[in-house]
Amino acid sequence: MNPTTAPRPAAALSPARALATAARVLRQLRHDPRTIALMIAVPCLMLVILRYVFDSGPHTFDTLGASLLGIFPLITMFLVTSIATLRERTSGTLERLLALPLGKADLIAGYALAFGAFAVLQSVLATGLSVWLLGLDVMGSPWLLLLVALLDALLGTALGLFVSAFAASEFQAVQFMPAVIFPQLLLCGLFTPRSAMHPVLRALSDVLPMSYAVDAMTQLLHHRDMTTAFARDALIVTGCALLVLTLGAATLRRRTP
Q: What is the pTM of this model?
């Protein structure tokens, strides 16, 4: 490598550099209305459709709607984040940024902050729509419902940042969805209780973060106050998101071959 183009070393994690990266990503997203619509409008639209699919059985919507309130944001944030980050790398933007005194941790933190801001907005809108307009009835506090939806959206952001390092094209990034999201969707307990699964699948579901997101939503369906199980599940989802972000910073490549 030419020494004049070698990236200069950067400090570990700089809040200032991370915030500057987040601001740049948000400015780019502001000019991409289709991506904004995918992040903000699509989960809300899916919840409206789900509500009227079960129009004759509101209790079914209460049961499934709470879980999907977290799953829909996770899926959309995974797709948008993985494709957007990959686009930065294939266009050469990431390589130019890493030639500056900007570390991988700064980049990952900046992307996480930017997409996390949309995750907050997405979760607020989806939760408010579900509880106050679609009549989603849960015993727990709507604020706890919002918390789990937000944690799921942040987990989707972290997973998207992580898998983007292993994709060479946007098509490949989308192909990661069946490998990363679908197994979690099948094994999270949404379709059948995890206790009723084959022992091997139950053991696998125990290490998948979406399982704990669904378990946390289930706690809110049946308990008015925060339970120990809910706090444990929320902490596990948070820990998984932080772990995946750390792995994303470690595996981030400057460019796609």
A: 0.82
